[in-house]
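I am still getting used to backbone structure tokens and would like to learn alongside you. Please make up or recall a protein chain and show it to me in full. Would you write everything just below, so we can both look at the same thing?
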Amino acid sequence: MPTVISYPVVETFHSVQGEGAWAGTNAVFIRLGGCDVHCRFCDTKESWNVNSHPLQPVHDIADTVGKIKPAIAVITGGEPLMHNLDPLTDSIRLALGKTHISIHLETSGAYPKSGNFDWVTLSPKTFKPPHPSVYAQVQELKIVVSSESDLQWAELQSSLVDLSTLKYLQPQWGNPEAQELTLNYVLAHPQWRLSLQTHKYLGVR
């Protein structure tokens, strides 16, 4: 009997993308368990322990996306690249058939890239920098800003991605000083765009 490939799933839900270039887009989110990056401002710390979440067969996850048929399917975490994502993205594409849904990855880049994605959003962290294999495959760079040092980190990371990569600064939620700092920086540096967590303003996931 062939081995059934499964992933630890924190949650799967249908909403809109709240951040970055695809904000407002109809989306299914697949949040995988497991993360050793441990951002202090993380709003999904329940995802960190990979053993706290039930394993779901890859075909069940793919079928969920196929039934909803959103505009985009977002694989997030936790840190999703802790897992080999090739079987997951392949199964989603198989379940979709001829229906084209853009498959997105949200990652800190801390592990080598896997999976077949249409869009990769990199949100790198200073305390666990990205694996070098990730940079060349990024369409969107998103830096969470809580202090001046994050802006320096943003510029360093910007120098490592392709010139065509969209670059976003996102103020830490609930931090008015970070919001002002980020807005002023974007106004002075037009190569950057402002990202807001619009789903939180709306009160949805």
Q: What stands out?
A: Helices lie at 58-68, 86-96, 148-158, 176-188, 198-202.
